[in-house]
Amino acid sequence: MDIKQEYLSAAYPESAKKAAGGNVRAVFANPLAQIALVGVVLALVQFLALGGMISSAFAYALGNTLIYAIVAIGFCLLLGYSGLASLGTAGFIGLGSYVAFYLIEGMGAPYYVALFVTLAVSIALGVIVGFISLRIEGIYLAIMTLALAEIIRSLLMVLKATIKININNIVLFGVNVNEKAVYLLITATFIILMALTSNLIRSPVGRAMLAMKDSTSAAQAMGISLMKYRLLAFVISTIYAAMGGLLYMMYVRNMTTATSTLLTLSTSLNILGAVIIGGAKSLWGTTFGTFIIYGLQSMFLSKIRFFVENPAFITMITGLLIIVVVMFFPGGFAQMLSSLRLWLRRKRVERRIRDYVGNES
Amino acid sequence: MSATRAERRLLEKARRLRIEIGMLEAARELQIEKAAAKKAARSAERARAAGRELAEKSFEKLGADEIRRAITEKRLREENERYAALRKEILLSGYLLSDKDNEALADAHTARLERIRENTAAELSELSNPAQGQLPIPTVDEPEETSSAEAIRARFDEQISQARKRLREVERRLESGAASTERTELEEGLVLSVKELKMYFGGVKAVDGLSFDVREGEIFGLIGPNGAGKTTVFNCITQFYKPTGGKLLFRGRENEVLDLTKEKVHDVILHGIVRTFQNVEVVPELTVLENLLIAGHRQYSSGIAASALHLPKLRREEEIIRRKAEKVLQFMGLTAFSGAYAFGLPYGILKKIEIARTLMCSPRLIILDEPAAGLNDAETAELASLIRRIRDEYRCTILLVEHDMGLVMDVCDRICAISFGKLLAFGTPEEIQTDPNVQQAYLGVEEDDDGTA
Lengths: 361, 453
What we know:
A: mainly alpha; ABC transporter involved in vitamin B12 uptake, BtuC; two-stranded antiparallel ribbon; 16 helices; 75% helix; B: 453 residues; alpha/beta; Rossmann fold; six-stranded mixed β-sheet; 13 helices; 10 strands; 51% helix; globular
């Protein structure tokens, strides 16, 4: 370099310039931008399906999976962040969908009323379970929530031997919505809840929950009220589950307590499985886990003849996947990914050290 | 005796208002500081541009020595920055650096610096410039700027004075109700008074009628053989256990006397009582800085909605508390670890993080539970000076339980020795060392020499 120029930049150094505008990488490092991008892609799937470029069965299956993903995000906050185990997810979902159904079909209430009542009921349920969680912990809490879910299921069955949900037309804001419009509603709900949850975990609330999970005594010593955050975790998870239930009812439009598997233990276990193989501390991991558990079969494997003829193999594959993941990566796919990233980073560091030392000797 | 519910509600309200006022004041200072920094940066930029222009025009008049100095410095600085960036990346990525590599790296750095000096000297040996020569300092016209500090102050002061007014109202109502409740007294100069403390677990008397006073600003040691009940006493003070009997009086921030047994375990920190744990309790999946933010949890006045929506209020508070955490990290010499995840950090660092967390809440009483456990001699010596530094810098009282007699005798002003939940001896380190009861408890009954060990 010209000595004059070098002197000028040495004696009068320009202050560190800010990265030039339009730095794409920086924008997509923002979690909210990532969520928005995924939302656009998800909405696009429906429009492509409408245009006939994607099979509508695929889009329908995707919507169904997203409903479970909504439930799973709430569960992620509960298990991954607050360290509270629950096997009552099915009950939480079921209560939401059936309460809403009663109000809408049985009493002719408008949808927004149904929404608020459903939310109120699920908050009450969350508070009850939260209070119980202050007394019981770990596996005992899981068993207790399982029992609670069974009680809810039996209660719904007793109230009416078979509740038959059968909705033909849904009218929202004066517009008749079909399944495809409900798909967009599901996507919007998923994106909004994802953004709120993502904000929450990157705030004092999320940190308080993590502190509480790792050590209740250290958390308390730092001024974190166990009651406040345990109740909050359960309330959030029941609200998300109830939202999932409500959307499920609007999307599927046809189910009975007698035949629907939605209310059984298998739903709770599937959500638990999804959160664990995805990574209980990662929202994207959890979403991915839900796709493995619910989406793999309905969206991809259902096209392969072998699996259509032998559906038992699908369950075997998912089971095997869970075993492998839990054995090698207890933090799920999210941990797998972050370990890989860390490994690459360390390789890069190793190379940089070699370069630094090597160029000298 | 106990505060009524209405009074408790008022106290809670007053506390919230005080936090809000504190936050607003901190936000005001921060904004003023930022505005000043921006202004300074603008004026520095103008000076730089003017200087550069002048130097460009009359480069030939400039002294060769000055050119050599500036260029060499710049090249060395760039090399140092490269080296520091690599070191930081090694630390943050958790790369295990062998001693050999560590040495090779340091050697390579020294060699590189040396080569830069030689090369630059060779390259710049033949400059046509005169040996000496200075450029005049250019004059820069500073444009008139309206004082933004005043505007910021005005904006915040309005909010602050409103919050103050509300606080005064609450305080007035508290005062008028105060006559009905009996006030507990604590002797002047004391920060904590443990009176006839009893803690029974079923038939086991872990602490049995223990009394001691802690003076404001002292380093107070609590010692005793294993199972003497030291940690139980700590757990009683911090309300992890509700004592079976006795009184725990504490002087709060506003010079009020509190009966700690009436406080909830997670509210104790509000009065400035913080503790560490025997086995470090750091959140491994958060960074070191975030671990400190947890300790600042009760200083946020924004609630759940603000958190879920990341409202400006939360972002402002987050920035203020982050700055506070950075200052604490600097005080503790942990700045390099700020962005590193706590998982996998060396034990000595984790212990330091735990102590750093106690400094986040303007502590009045720091309770250290065996801070030297697991540390080597050098680290223990460092800890001793750190404890003193914390007491002097943060003007707080420190209460410590420790097995390492060297540390206790070194740093403590006064010591309380207990055994089987009862007081054994009380006094200065010298008094404790020569106390026959203590020697008997520690060394057994056959102890009979003069005991100066």
